[in-house]
Amino acid sequence: MAGASPSAAAGLTLRMLAASPSAVDGGASPADVVAARLRAAGIAEEAIAEKRAMFGRAAQRLIDEGLAPEVHAKAFWVPGRIEIAGKHTDYAGGRSLLAATSRGFAVVSVDRDDDICRIFTAFGGSLGRSSASLRIHKDLEPQQGHWSAYPATAIRRLARNFDIHSGVDVAVECDLPESSGMSTSSAVICYMWVILAERNGVQATDKFREHLKTPEELYSYLGFIENGQNCGSVLVGDKGVGTFGGSEDHTAIMSCDPNTIKMFSYCPTKHEGTFNFPEDSVFVIAVSGAIAEKTGNAMADYNNAAFLARDAAAAWCKSTGKTPLDGETFVQGRPNLAEVVRHSRAESEEKSEEKLRSEISEAIARVDDGKTFGPNPDDPSVRYAKGSLKERFEQFFDESEIMVPKIAKALADSDYDGLGKWSDESHRQTVECLRNIVPETAWLPQEARRRGALGASAFGAGFGGSCWALVRKRGAEAFADDLGEAYRKKFPRCADRSTFFVMAPGPGAFSVHGAADGRAAESTPSHPPRSPETVCAPERAHSHTLRDERVSWAPRR
């Protein structure tokens, strides 16, 4: 093994990253340079010392593994994500409302001269410190059920799609709570991308420039790495990790900005709006400690929600004899629910949203008989219960078409009555319709609201995860402490694994070794800066009656 020589291009070294913040070098310590870059990127002031220490420990880990302290190093921050609204919508083409967490991965990498990728990790919880050595090759076999399956899946796909060969030594420190529903697994895909894409010059290749022309196309591609699907006809799919999710998590992790929330739709990924986060409020994040790992039964349950959405769209096609959008669907031959909605809306510009929802629901119900559809088309012995596809569509429509835009606008306008009403309804439908909630995450938002939270909802893939609660800044720490104490008394079996903390939305992934502003172009395709919208401008308003409440929003075209 040979890392880059100490005479590499000027920038960070392992020694600089590992330096104590108290070290002084000519009046400004190396640690201060790193801290300044974290600050410029939007890391909250109160969190800078903690994140700085994480990068220091990651750099020291590589030194302890035998790398020279003066070797040139690269460093990246890759956060988790909070799904404010948009539960199980992305893989069906719907909308979601996103923020980056204040917690995530501090990643330090050093280039190698061979095709080996060594990864040294330090996780919280039961995973502890670990390591893996993976060869960069198109036939690399991920070890399913092991944490290294995610890095291995990314390596294999990038080797197949972009013919990468150059290796790295990587050390990772993570402060995301274990199985928190904050997309730890997708963050691994993202940090493997930013490291290996920069190491191998992927973004300078003609293939990248031709097939991933926009940031949104890159976010979709990262989702395809995880789920194994094709990204067009050239960046063909391969083994994923076994889940059939979309690109919401990767989009949030790569694109979010400090003190803002973003709304996207998917299939294809499309930025629909950026909204200022209320200045007088913060999130209290309640990590339940209930296990939400996407393995075993939890993976099967997660995938079942995706299959229901897939087959609800297929049921509409079978019932109506129609193909949405004249066959111009995101996945050829497999329409999704958002495409069914767009097609049906376009057929009658004057049709009310209530009527639209009803007509699609009735069409699905005609073939939702408990006999026709099941999660595995090749196994006729397993079929969905009668009415399951209709219910899945209605939850999707209400969440994606109504509640995501309404919650976004309520947050942007500091309309806390509206936020409370719509976040309550989103959580109710998660509990009663998706039914992917454990008692812990069903209870947390309700208790947070009872204690005065302005809005609250569970998030994560389900069957575990966390809850966000929006509260006023003043008293937020006390609120988190009191909610945590009540939770641990209610659910003592999760007490040791639960975590409660206060945060505002943080920055998405960025390179610490890049420009002084902290954000680096390496993580995303070259593109002109985009002016953020504070609210999506409506082309025309639609309305729909949901539990006797009249709402309006801007439709997606």
Tell me the radius of gyration: 23 Å
Assign an overall shape: globular
Biggest pleated-sheet summary: 8 strands, mixed
Category by helix and strand content:
alpha+beta
Helical run tally: 15
Low-pLDDT segments: 1-10, 23-28, 292-302, 515-557
Helix amount: 25-40%
Number of strands: 14
- Report the end-to-end length measured between terminal Cα atoms: 53 Å
What number is the mean pLDDT?
86
Describe what this molecule looks like in 3D.
With 557 residues, the protein is an alpha+beta fold. Helices cover 39% and strands 18% of the residues. The chain has 15 helices and 14 strands. The strands form 3 sheets. Strands 1, 2, 3, 4, 5, 6, 7 and 12 form an 8-stranded mixed sheet that branches. A 4-stranded antiparallel sheet has the order 9-10-8-11. Strand 6 (260-265) and strand 7 form a beta hairpin. Helix 9 crosses helix 11 (353-365). The longest helix is centred in the middle third of the chain and has 25 residues, at 296-320. It is globular. The model is unreliable at 1-10, 23-28, 292-302 and 515-557 (pLDDT under 50).
